[in-house]
Amino acid sequence: MTANVSLIRFQVHGDDRGSLIALENGHNLPFDVKRVYYIFGTKAGVPRGFHAHRQLKQVLVAMSGSVTVKTEHGGKTETHLLNRPDEGLLIEGLVWREMHDFSPDCVLTVLADEYYNESDYIRDYTVFKQEDAT
Ligand code: T46
Q: Does 2 have pLDDT greater than 90?
C-alpha cells in the first residue's frame, strides 16, 4: 500500500455472546475523530466517491456487508475489498477514492479528523492529477 493508504486491524473482544470492537482516540485510531458518517442503502451497481481530499484523514470500515474502494495516489492505483468490521482503511490527504460494488447490506462507516468542509474536496480528476504530480 502507498504511504497515504494503509490498513488498520482492530482488536476484537469476543466471548460466547459475540464480538465487540472499541475505537478510541489516541489508542487504536491515528487521529482524534471530529466527525462520523455512514453510507448505507446504496443502490445496486451505483458507485460513490470520485474525489480526493487535500488534508482530510479518514478511516473507512465496512460495519456490515462489503464494498470495494479504489484509491489513487502518486500515480499508483490500488483496490481494497472492505468486508470485515475489524478492519479499517486509513486514507490520509491527497488520495483519489472511488467506492464500487456495494453489497445490499453494506454499512460503510467513516471516521474523520475534521468537520465537513467542501473546500477540502477535489472533485475534478484533472485537477487531482495536476496536484498529485507536484
Ligand atoms: C469520502 C467518501 C468515502 C454532508 O453534509 N456532510 C458530510 O459529512 C458528508 C460526508 C457529506 N455531506 C453531504 C454532501 C452531499 O450533499 O452529503 C451528500 C453526499 O456526499 P458525497 O457525494 O460527498 O458522498 P460520497 O459517498 O461520494 O463521499 C463520501 C465523503 O463525502 C468523502 O469525504 O471520502 O464518502
A: no
- The sign of the CA dihedral 46, 67, 27, 5 is negative
Nearest atom within ligand 1 for CA of residue 110: 3
User: Three-state SS for 44?
Assistant: coil
- Whole-model pTM above 0.85? yes
Read off the pLDDT band of 113 (50, 70, 90). very high
Half-sphere exposure of 70 (CA within 13 A, CB side): 12
Walk across the sheet containing 5-9 and list its strands. Answer: 5-9, 87-92, 57-64, 107-112, 35-40
119 C-alpha vs ligand 1 centroid, how far in Å?
A: 12
Is-catalytic flag, 51?
yes
Q: pLDDT tens across 9-56, in order?
A: 999 999 999 999 999 999 999 999 999 999 999 999 999 999 999 999
Best residue among 5, 46, 48 to mutate for probing ligand 1, ranked by most atoms within 8 Å of CB: 48
Is 90:57 a contact under the CB 8 Å cutoff? yes
